[in-house]
Specification:
The complex is a heterodimer of chains A (174) and B (64). Chain A is mostly helical. Helix content of chain A is 84%, strand content 0%. In chain A, helix 2 packs antiparallel against helix 3, helix 4 (89-100) runs antiparallel to helix 5 (108-119) and helix 5 (108-119) runs antiparallel to helix 6 (126-173). Chain B has 64 residues and is mainly alpha-helical. Chain B has helices at 4-25, 29-62. The chains are: A mainly alpha (174), B mainly alpha (64). The interface between A and B is medium-sized, with 13 and 13 residues.
């Protein structure tokens, strides 16, 4: 009976510690995803600036060079644009981002910002597009800086909260 | 009275105070307050039957 209790408590503590570790990693994953989006935006900027490709082709070639989840999103946007069913680029962009929203760890604010960027795609001239990309890249830079400042403290806090919460739960249940 | 409850209360006290310190150091005072309150309520639930026993003993002692 005692052995069972000890094993159960160990399981609870381990599970809670893992939950703590998971929560501490969320911000790091968000930072990585923002980084890959930034990379994709920079590629898009150079595609617009130098090779003057059409948007679907540019998105496709960026998708080939990017990593997940940007790869899937851009490939999705490309295939939907190539279907040519009369949807505008901003509609397709918003739809695809909303579809992949649950698979990413980005905050609501991040998603809104990227959707807002999509609404300005294909609008006015080349320099306007580039300045819009710069605005989005600035936002990403600021957010990443913010995450860096917060992450060290938060990581420690979530990990210790996980372990301590697990021990507390085990004590309460014994 | 089961002696185990004393050790359990001590363990909860230690853990809640450590959690409190961790939360305060990461500038989440309101969460720290809630944790302390939750610990207090849990411990109160455990000891409430002993308190009521004590009151009834006092009542019978003085034949109130």
């Amino acid at each position: 009976m005692h052995l069972l209790k000890i094993v159960g408590s160990m399981c609870i503590i381990c599970a809670c510690a893992m939950i703590g570790i998971y929560f501490s990693q969320i911000q790091q994953i968000r930072k990585r995803e923002l980084g890959s989006i930034k990379k994709a935006l920079m590629l898009l900027k150079s595609q617009i600036e130098y090779s003057c490709e059409a948007l679907p082709e540019a998105l496709h070639s960026i998708a080939l060079r990017s990593e997940e989840p940007v790869k899937t999103i851009f490939t999705n946007i490309y295939t939907q644009l190539m279907m040519k069913n009369g949807d505008s680029i901003s509609q397709v962009w918003t739809r695809c981002l909303k579809m992949h929203e649950s698979k990413m760890k980005l905050s609501k604010e991040d998603i809104e910002n990227i959707i807002a960027f999509g609404k300005t795609l294909g609008y006015l001239d080349k320099s306007q597009q580039i300045s819009n990309i710069n605005i989005s890249v600035d936002y990403i830079n600021q957010t990443v800086e913010c995450i860096d400042q917060k992450s060290e403290k938060d990581t420690k806090m979530y990990q210790s909260l996980g372990v301590l919460g697990g021990i507390l739960l085990a004590v309460l249940l014994i | 009275m089961d002696i185990n409850i004393v050790f359990k209360i001590a363990a909860v006290g230690i853990l809640v105070s450590v959690l409190n310190q961790v939360l305060i150091s990461s500038k989440r005072e309101e969460l720290a307050m809630m944790t302390t309150l939750a610990g207090l309520v849990v411990v109160l639930f455990w000891v409430i039957q002993y308190i009521s026993e004590l009151f009834s003993t006092v009542q019978t002692l003085f034949q109130l």
